[in-house]
Amino acid sequence: MSTDFGQRMSAGQRRALIERLVTEQGAVQVEELAASLAVTQSTIRRDLSLLTEQGKLARTYGGAMPATVTEPSLGQRTALATAEKDRIARWAAARIGAPDTVLLDAGTTTGRLAHHLRDRAGLTVITNGIPVLTELADADAVQVIALAGEMRHISQGFVGPLAELTLSRLTADMVFLGADGLDPRLGICEASLLQTRLKEQMMARAREVFVLADSSKLGAAPFNAWAPLPAAWTLVTDSGATDDDLAPFRALRGAEVVVV
């Protein structure tokens, strides 16, 4: 492929070609794509990030591979396990005191948690999630700090360097995280490395770590990006989880399992 051809391609044509190459080859590397398409590696990384967000491929270390599972939109997630998510959210809300500072991840379960915190005078909530911000937008009693950065439209959460920079200046008493999947060895599974990086930093900035995951998430690994769990943390799940589902988590030293 000539340099002139690469320079004449539009961004949409280039991304379509990248998607086709990933499908045909099974995996591609950033350096190879940049050289063959005559663009910078940063351009390719932006293309891969957008295609990942659109569910058209999955990021790997240094490149991309075909997406085995399409990431559901926030609207699709909202309709799933609604009763279970609300029970989990109510349990979490009961653990939060008015003077606390809490970190709330982006997601539907943390959105429900925010709903149950609307009247907590003196509470400070730090979040990267638009659902949380929406719930607390008119909750005058609650102080809200947004980790604004690059928005992932499909999940309605902010990620990236700007969100990470704001977070690096803050600490919290507790962090409540969601998950697309949860593995006792690998940790929290998400569609994007930017998501898992921010989750990992959230865990490092909080005194207590809670993962809010309904039973369908336990043992699931729909994507290839992971956030390792800390030495001590709490899993909060619903009664749909079987003993077999919970056994690997209960066996972890430092992990507490709560079923609601």
TrEMBL record:
<dbReference type="Pfam" id="PF00455">
    <property type="entry name" value="DeoRC"/>
</dbReference>
<keyword id="KW-0804">Transcription</keyword>
<dbReference type="GO" id="GO:0003700">
    <property type="term" value="F:DNA-binding transcription factor activity"/>
</dbReference>
<dbReference type="InterPro" id="IPR037171">
    <property type="entry name" value="NagB/RpiA_transferase-like"/>
</dbReference>
<dbReference type="InterPro" id="IPR001034">
    <property type="entry name" value="DeoR_HTH"/>
</dbReference>
<keyword id="KW-0805">Transcription regulation</keyword>
<dbReference type="InterPro" id="IPR014036">
    <property type="entry name" value="DeoR-like_C"/>
</dbReference>
<dbReference type="Pfam" id="PF08220">
    <property type="entry name" value="HTH_DeoR"/>
</dbReference>
<dbReference type="InterPro" id="IPR036390">
    <property type="entry name" value="WH_DNA-bd_sf"/>
</dbReference>
<dbReference type="InterPro" id="IPR050313">
    <property type="entry name" value="Carb_Metab_HTH_regulators"/>
</dbReference>
<protein>
    <submittedName>
        <fullName>Transcriptional regulator, DeoR family</fullName>
    </submittedName>
</protein>
<dbReference type="GO" id="GO:0003677">
    <property type="term" value="F:DNA binding"/>
</dbReference>
<dbReference type="InterPro" id="IPR036388">
    <property type="entry name" value="WH-like_DNA-bd_sf"/>
</dbReference>
<feature type="domain" description="HTH deoR-type">
    <location>
        <begin position="11"/>
        <end position="66"/>
    </location>
</feature>
<dbReference type="InterPro" id="IPR018356">
    <property type="entry name" value="Tscrpt_reg_HTH_DeoR_CS"/>
</dbReference>
<keyword id="KW-0238">DNA-binding</keyword>
